[in-house]
Amino acid sequence: MQLETSKIQLEMKNISGSTFKKVNAQELDFDNVNLSKTKVNNANMSEMTLNDVNASNCYLSDINFTKTSIKNANMSHMSIEHIHLIGTEFSNIVLPVEGDGNYIPDESYKPIKFKNCNLTNMEIIDCDITGLKINGILIEELLKKL
Fold this sequence. Notes:
two-stranded parallel sheet, two-stranded parallel ribbon, 1 helix, 8 strands, 4% helix, elongated, 5peptide_repeat, Pentapeptide-BTB/POZ_domain, Pentapeptide repeat-containing protein
């Protein structure tokens, strides 16, 4: 498939509802854009840098995020399915604090869930495990019995 090459610079434009199919879109630069309700299917998103993003209520499936960096992100209520986490590191994962958009004063947040996952060789280091359950067993209580 031969692709026509062109660079587009858009500023202060509304391209909502646009469709991109069979497009090579490497090294794009998005700054201060609204991508809400955007659908991305069968995409290579490797080596991307996502900084200061709101991905809440986002659904991701069959996407290559190899060597992608996500920092300063709101990923609340996000759904991620069929993923490979080999060598993936999660650091400084926190609950919202007062002033954050998703902050709830009584901290009655929906739990974070891992379902049907292979967590072989997973390490949890220096983390608050209050309320952590594995297959319904409260780990805090289990550790007290050791």
